[in-house]
Design a protein that fits this description.
It is a single chain. The chain is of the alpha/beta class. It is 33% helix and 22% strand. The chain contains 6 helices and 7 strands; from the N terminus they run H-E-H-E-E-H-E-H-E-H-E-E-H. It has a 7-stranded mixed β-sheet, sandwiched between helices. Helix 4 packs parallel to helix 5. The longest helix is centred in the C-terminal third of the chain and has 19 residues. The termini are far apart.
Amino acid sequence: KSFIKNVQNINILEFGVMHGRSTKMFLELCKNLDGKLTSVDMNDHQDLYDDENWEFIHSRDDDPNLLKKFENNKYDIIYIDSLHEPNHVKKIFYMYYDLLKVGGRVFLDDINWLPYVKNSFKDSEYSEVMNRRIFSKIIEIYYSNLENMKLEFSFCGTGNANIQKLNDNKLEDVQKIRNRIFGFRNFARIFVKRKPKM
């Protein structure tokens, strides 16, 4: 993203390290932009990289004590790639969103269910269902906060959501979207279209 190239002393908070691919990418950014990366994972990855721009914290991302540790910091990027479950993603998003600078971005990984549908190249019922639910949860967060953020999706690979913070307003809690797709009128339209002509 072009906005990253212009952020000197970039400050990044990453949840979920796993194999360290995103961590490596962020450390390259930090090297080029005189920045700092803080990574959090419940598994111990502290020996993965030896880099002066990196701090690893061995912790659950939903630990309230961890939030207290960060409360005086502001971040340009928050990357969420830990537990892929919609309510957990929502919880972490709301816990740490206030730490994001205005104009900063939250990236949420694994929102694309298409690689996991039946007979697709990553065929997995669990991942398909979870990614669909995470995608829907992000849409609900956005719908509840239209004036507070911008949202973009990428469906490349397993996909990601890119949320830009527009202001310092307090986030509204998630509202369910009243969808008409399952409404009586919509079913009536489908029925009428399918009804054979006499």
